[in-house]
Design a protein that fits this description.
Layout: H1 7-20, H2 26-43, H3 52-64, H4 69-88, H5 115-129, H6 135-150, H7 154-158, E1 165-166, E2 171-175, E3 181-185, H8 188-200, H9 224-236, H10 246-259, H11 264-271, H12 276-279, H13 281-297
Helix pairs in contact: 1-2, 2-4, 5-6, 6-8, 6-10, 10-13
Length: 301
């Protein structure tokens, strides 16, 4: 279905702005473009003719269709960003989204694997090393260790380059969201597993292999979908119903750091959060654990 007149060229310019000037990931840019395409079809008029009531009717239709509050919030942010940009560029006379608001998002506490869960997951991958001589098992162990040790996003782990590993400082240089670079520490077990994989990496690499740390079975850069399957398989092997993905390991790393006394600002920097408010959810996770322990153990709970 074609977009109403005036949208296509404007959206192409906006997508170029998101990519070149804001440095958003291709996945985020595609999601924003899809949201705006949907908005344009709902409105049925050109961008300059969109009004606040039209935008509110779009949100209402979305909510009636059962969209999650997180989805509605993301789309509101997308539309506000688009019309704010169009107004600043002089492409529309008014910004109809300036007063557009979304329902308050209910924040769900993430499911966090315990330390024992993570230990069992790592042990299950290590056990596979004794079953054969497959270099990819070394890769899988290194991947899980690095994700848990440094709290990387799966996309960050897959794009990690060989030169980003600093053995002397036991640190990784990571290119995060928005092209922001940060340095994160690397634990001794993770460095040991990484070194073991890098010794076997030439057996997987080919003449055209990229300089990324983690490779796929055919020598190309490791696909994030493959990395997710590796982590799910590793955590399922724990045998305690603890299966999780890469983001679960990221949650675990942050929660276990705060449990151990790390300050919130340090955890924020390690995770690459732009706002400490995002990191604060892990203090809620820890507080909820304390409340559960109190209710279960205290005679007057």
């Amino acid at each position: 279905m074609e977009l109403p007149p005036g949208w296509s060229a404007l959206l192409e310019d906006y997508v170029a702005h998101l990519d070149a000037e804001r440095g958003l990931s291709p996945h985020t840019v595609r999601a924003y473009r899809g949201d705006l395409d949907e908005l344009a079809r709902h409105c049925g008029v050109g961008p300059a003719e969109v009004t606040l009531p039209t935008l509110r009717s779009w949100l209402s239709a979305m909510t009636d269709a059962g969209a999650a509050s997180s989805t509605v919030q993301r789309r509101v942010a997308c539309v506000r960003g688009f019309f704010g940009w169009a107004r600043r560029e002089g492409l529309v006379a008014e910004d109809p989204a300036a007063r557009l608001t979304a329902p308050r998002r209910r924040r769900h506490l993430p499911r966090v694997p315990s330390r024992a869960d993570v230990d069992l997951s790592l042990a299950s991958v290590s056990a596979r090393l004794s079953e054969g001589d497959d270099p990819l098992v070394h890769r899988d162990l290194a991947l899980v260790e690095v994700l848990y040790s440094s709290g990387l996003r799966v996309s960050e782990a897959c794009s990690l380059r060989l030169r980003d590993v600093d053995r002397e400082r036991r640190a990784l240089t990571v290119l995060g969201k928005g092209g922001k670079e940060r340095t994160v520490p690397l634990g001794v077990p993770a460095l040991r597993a990484l070194d073991a994989w890098l010794r076997r990496r030439p057996e997987v690499a080919g003449p055209r292999s990229p300089e990324t740390v983690f490779l796929g079975a055919r020598g190309g850069a490791m696909d994030p979908r493959v990395a997710r399957r590796v982590v799910h398989a590793a955590t399922a092997g724990a045998g305690r119903g603890a299966e999780t993905g890469p983001h679960g390991l990221r949650h675990a790393m942050a929660t276990h750091l705060i449990d151990g006394g790390a300050d919130l600002r340090s955890v924020q920097e390690m995770l690459g959060h732009s706002s400490v408010a995002t990191t604060q959810i892990y203090t809620h996770v820890t507080s909820e654990r304390l409340r559960q322990a109190f209710r279960q153990a205290h005679p007057r709970a």
